[in-house]
Amino acid sequence: MTIAAVIGLGTMGAGIAAVLARGGLTVRACDTAPAAVERARGELPAIAGLLDRLGTPARGDATAVAFAGSLEEAVAGADLVLENVPEKLELKQQVFRQIDAAVGTDCIIASDTSGIPITKLQAVVSRPERVVGMHWSNPPHLIPMIEVVAGRQTGTATRDWMVALIRGLGLLPVVVKKDVPGFVENRVLYAIMREALDLVEEGVIEPEDLDTCVSWGIGYKLAIVGPMKLLDMAGLDIYQSVASYLNPELSRRADVSGAIAERIGRGRLGLKSGAGLFDYAPGELQSLRAERANRFVAVRKALTED
Ligand SMILES: NC(=O)C1=CN([C@@H]2O[C@H](COP(=O)(O)OP(=O)(O)OC[C@H]3O[C@@H](n4cnc5c(N)ncnc54)[C@H](O)[C@@H]3O)[C@@H](O)[C@H]2O)C=CC1
Ligand SMILES: Cc1ncc(C(=O)O)c(C(=O)O)c1O
């Protein structure tokens, strides 16, 4: 029986813990914030229901996650530890050191970092060959693709073990061949985000209309035909003509849009604080999350039908 420990139970933690538990792993989880533990505990039954509806192979009970009082208690005897704390290099390195001091020599240490090079995380542990990126996508219990990222010192056996684990969970591992910042998913996503924010800030489009354009024009299409195959679908000659005048016009800003800092300064962090770029009515968040989850389930089922 594989024992896994999930460290950090914020936006991502509960969904990941539930998927691992349903896949038959023995799962322990911890967070330094008691409120995060209670929120995660409360989320598990609904997540288990969604996994039932997706028809994910059930080798275990998705709600069977043991909440530990400390990191050391969570990782004791673990075969896999998944670090899932906020995206800050120093914090992640400190947690990696703490994990390294508490686990056995064969334990694989993975990170769900959105894009900090794995090479920087494995630099602080005693067995860097056993460190690997395992980058899930939000909501982790609904998005089937997981990036597997080897740092410069990651062993091939560690990478292959991770790929096999993800396949065994019935999910889609994608191996990222170079440890570049942002890996692949977020390099593509953040190119979209940068352009989208620029277009809204420049008054080219309203935020709601930007979302309609991307979801129904680009997103719907890309779910069926990825960007590489889309080039063939459009015609490479057309792409060359458009890209030759459009590429120089696209955003190249190296800083982060001021609109984001302005909202953060007002405590508007998004769904987790009840408001972000959009306002949400009190009581709306739960139904919004449930409605989105229903759509994710329906679309995933439709996309995997023969
Ligand atoms: N939010 C997203 O859409 C995605 C986030 N990620 C990545 O996953 C990681 C976690 O992200 P979120 O869940 O969104 O963050 P979050 O900020 O929602 O949650 C992080 C949790 O870690 C806890 N924590 C902080 N220090 C800790 C420590 N020393 N030991 C144990 N717990 C600790 C916090 O109390 C908090 O509950 C980040 O690296 C992020 O970039 C990856 C994919 C998607
Ligand atoms: C805005 C944003 N940033 C990072 C990620 C990630 O994959 O790390 C996501 C996501 O959807 O998973 C995201 O939306």
UniProtKB/TrEMBL annotation:
Q: What does the entry list as the binding residues for NAD(+)?
A: G8, L9, G10, T11, M12, G13, D31, E87, K92, S114, N138, K272
* One Gene Ontology MF term: oxidoreductase activity, acting on the CH-OH group of donors, NAD or NADP as acceptor
Keywords (alphabetical) are:
NAD, Oxidoreductase
Pfam families hit by this protein? 3HCDH, 3HCDH_N
Q: Which GO terms describe its biological process?
A: fatty acid metabolic process
Q: Which positions fall inside the 3-hydroxyacyl-CoA dehydrogenase C-terminal domain? A: 182-280
Domain 3-hydroxyacyl-CoA dehydrogenase NAD binding: from-to ranges:
4-179
Q: Does the keyword NAD apply?
A: yes
- The UniProt site entry described as Important for catalytic activity is assigned to H135
Which InterPro entries does the record cross-reference, listed alphabetically?
3-Hydroxyacyl-CoA_DH-like (IPR053562), 3-OHacyl-CoA_DH (IPR022694), 3-OHacyl-CoA_DH_CS (IPR006180), 3-OHacyl-CoA_DH_NAD-bd (IPR006176), 3HC_DH_C (IPR006108), 6-PGluconate_DH-like_C_sf (IPR008927), 6PGD_dom2 (IPR013328), NAD(P)-bd_dom_sf (IPR036291)
Q: Which family does it belong to?
A: Belongs to the 3-hydroxyacyl-CoA dehydrogenase family.
The protein here is known as: 3-hydroxybutyryl-CoA dehydrogenase/5-formyl-3-hydroxy-2-methylpyridine 4-carboxylate dehydrogenase
Q: What is the lineage of its organism?
A: Bacteria, Pseudomonadati, Pseudomonadota, Alphaproteobacteria, Rhodospirillales
